[in-house]
Amino acid sequence: MSLSADLFEKLGAFYLGRPVDPESRAKEDTPFLYDPNDLLTHAVCVGMTGSGKTGLGIALLEEAAIDGIPAIIIDPKGDLANLALQFPELRPEDFRPWISEDAARREGVAPEAYAEAQAKLWREGLAKWGEDGERIRRLQQSAEVAVFTPGSTAGIPVSVVRSFAPPPVAIREDAELFSGQVETTVASLLGLLNISAEARGREVTFLSNLLASAWEKGETLELAELARRIQKPPFTQVGVMDLESFYPEKERFKLVLALNSLIASPGFALWREGLPLDVDAFLHNAQGKPRLAVFSIAHLGDAERMFFVSMLLSAVLSWMRQQSGTGSLRALLYMDEIFGYFPPSANPPSKLPLLTLMKQARAFGLGVVLATQNPVDLDYKGLSNAGTWFIGRLQTERDKGRLLDGLGGMGLDRAKIDRLLSGLGKRVFLMNNIHEGEPVLFESRWALSYLCGPLDREKLRALPRPSGLEVAAREAAPEAKEEEGASSAPPLLESVRQVYPADAQGALLAPGIVACAAIRYRDAKAKVDTTREVAYLAPFPEKEISGVDWAAAESVELEAFADHPPQSARWQAVPPAGLRKKSYDDWQRGFTAWVLEGQSLSLLECAEVGAVSEPGEDERDFRIRLGQALREARDARVATLRAKYGKQLETLNTRLKRAQEAMRVQEAQAGQARMQTFLSIGSALMSAFLGRKKLSAANVSRGATAARGVSRAMKEGGDVAAANERVETLEKEIATLEETLQQEVEALGEKLDPLTCELAPREVPASRVGTRVKWIALGWVSVG
Q: Which DSSP letter does residue 609 get?
């Protein structure tokens, strides 16, 4: 019997399967729904090969996508790339490129026939679970799937070691987190260099100091620059020892050679090409649509896998610390086959960021889901933070015992759990959720995606790639051009400030006017009160008597300028007006007026929740942030609706119980009246039949009694009909109320959709109070 979609298409609920009776092990005809916010306390899925663990994981990720929740998915085996195989038409030709040719040969059928059988299998499998092509189409419309392949162009390549960028300020200001990220990065790099853990003591300390000294200043280290700094570090002491005693230059040169060999290797070039390791860009596309970002790493060696996973986990940790706190699920981190990355005793580079995520991610709306075949693969100290366990069929009794030991600290009945785990079938799981009253058994549903098994490189190349995800092209360095009239030194100006390009050694520099202002934007209604520091570069006016055309000015970043001139630069001539202090005073007054009159702050507003975009936040980022606010508003309003209707439903159900009890009483009384009437009529007839022809007074009395019984029976029958009608009326009222509740919940979901909700522009003018020009200067820019 298939399930009706009305039973499981619930807002804010994951349809994972159907319950299983713990005693008879019979499957129930009701959906098993899981609250996604329970994933804020993280989840672990354990099951041997063939238990259905991968299918359950894919079903969970599909439900997250349908609910608009993005995910970072680490796929060591290549199974989770199946998420990209979504065929709403369910045609055999859709399945044909992805079937197993070996499986078709084993079946003794042609590939086309096997593809047709797979299409039929999927249609029938989905139908049994109340699913169809329309639900697959809904999945596609809710989120996109992208498969990334670091170190390979089979999927979308990812640049991991183009540079080591500093973590965000939130990480740098937290000593423990900063130290952990430095440690993870250094350990990952040394693993990639094949330097054994036993020989890393001195290298770890040195590189940690080197990386920390750069990151504390906000510097990004390119690999070549890292090699140079290993040779010539910016410090001369490590701890209480001088650098040469601790790590002589001759020994450091061996580390430089190892790093250079890595950089020069042909295969390593792929690690520096592709999209940057930007978690925010992985989770949503350019339009703000949620994404399931699958990182397929089956093609990598062990050291390369550990390096990439550790770097990705560190990037996720950095992204997480930049998010606001929330009580609703914002995103998922899913990792399949955790073996070797989270062991109970050893400390690989991946373990520290995973432990930190398990402890802290909940506050930021990030749920962590880890899957493994064997419970001995896992660090139980870290997994004490996991609130949900999905346990499938285990390989050995030892595995079960290990798992029971781990669950023992949760106050569970060991004997009961042992009994429930015995004889689990394929795709049947025991769920222990701290948010639920007791463990439950359930069978996982049919996956919407086509589960064809691990995808090799050729099949990864054939996967569709979402628009907008293209490999970043290397930019050719512009050639310096020699121009006539260039001088070898900037002009000396009295009382006029000059600013220079931060990095323009040997370049040809042209003069302009740079003005910097602190602009205050204030809008009490929109709860906006912010001050932005801005700078603009304007060309000199064509005529000395003319003012500067600030409307033609170009916005520039202050970080691009320095107060000291670059070495070996060449300088173009400055117009006469640019050599006089008075000119800058006049230009500053014009700049002040232009800032106050024409520099409004353009924001976006969502009237539905009264949310306004932040300064500098584009529509994509606002919609992503708004999605969390809308989800929180949706959850709160749905809870209010359910509380409102819940009281009405409780009242109606109470009335229904009373009406049903009254109906049972009326039916009993009517039955007794009918029996008494029958006996009275029978007695009167027998007396008349056996007595004399002339009726006696007794016979007349019996007839009257029988007549009154008929009348009473008819009345009791009428009471039963009235009671039945009351029950039916109440049942209809309950059904109508439940339907109204569902309609209002669905309407609320459509109204609070972050991808379609209406955004209106909101202009915030510059405030005269708090706005000021900080300085105006002769500014130099590189032109070649």
A: T
Name residue 512's amino acid: G
Q: What does the alpha-carbon distance between residue 348 and residue 307 come to, in Å, rounded to a whole number?
A: 10
Burial group, residue 411, by CB count within 10 angstroms (0-12, 13-18, 19+): exposed
Rounded to whole angstroms, the Cα distance separating 330 from 361 reads 10
Residue with tokens 């990182």: 295
Band of residue 423 on the pLDDT scale cut at 50, 70, 90:
confident
Q: Write down the pTM of the prediction.
A: 0.73
Q: For 667-697, how does the pLDDT look when each residue is reduced to its tens digit (9 = 90+)?
A: 777 677 666 666 665 665 566 555 544 445 5
**CA-CA distance, 514 to 493, in Å (whole number)?**
15
Half-sphere exposure in the Cβ direction for 311 (13 Å, CA): 27
Q: Within 13 Å, how many C-alpha atoms sit on residue 404's CB side? A: 17
For residue 218, give Cα distances in angstroms to 104, 172, 207, 356: 57, 9, 16, 23
Query: How would you class 72 by CB atoms within 10 Å of its CB: exposed for 0-12, middle for 13-18, buried for 19 or more?
Result: buried
State both tokens at 780: 């130099």
Burial 139-173 (b: 16+ CB within 10 A, else e): beebbbbbbbbbbbebbbbbbbbbebbbbeeebbe
Arithmetic mean of pLDDT over the chain? 84
Span 308-323, pLDDT tens digits: 999 999 999 999 998 9
pLDDT, tens digit, 9 for 90 and up, residues 582-605: 899 999 999 999 999 878 888 998
What is the four-CA torsion angle of 129, 133, 139, 140, rounded to 10 degrees? 160
Q: Which residue has the higher pLDDT, 231 or 708?
A: 231
CA distance 137 to 453: 22
What whole-number distance in Å separates Cα of residue 575 and Cα of residue 393?
81
Residue 699 has pLDDT above 70, yes or no: no
Radius of gyration, CA atoms only, the chain: 37
* Higher-pLDDT residue of 135, 671: 135
pLDDT grade for 390, boundaries at 50, 70 and 90 = very high
Beta sheet of 760-764, edge-to-edge order:
611-612, 601-606, 760-764
Nearest to 551 by CA among 561, 541, 559: 541
Task: Describe the chain by its helix, strand, coil percentages, rounded to 5.
Answer: 50, 15, 35
Question: Are the C-beta atoms of residues 295 and 72 closer than 8 Å to each other?
Answer: yes
Distances (CA, A) of 597 to 526, 546, 601, 767: 20, 19, 12, 10
**DSSP, res 88:** T
Q: Is the pLDDT of residue 352 over 80?
A: yes
- With 70 as the cut, is the pLDDT of residue 461 above it? yes
**Rounded to an integer, what distance in angstroms lies between the CA atom of residue 21 and that of residue 32?**
12
What is the C-alpha to C-alpha distance for residues 608 and 606, in angstroms, rounded to an integer?
5
Helix (H) or strand (E) holding 33: strand 32-34
| Band of pLDDT at residue 477, cut at 50, 70 and 90 | very low
Query: Among candidates 445, 499, 387, 443, which has minimal Cα distance to 35?
Result: 387
**Are 528 and 520 within 8 A, CB to CB?**
no
The identity of residue 487, as a single letter, is S
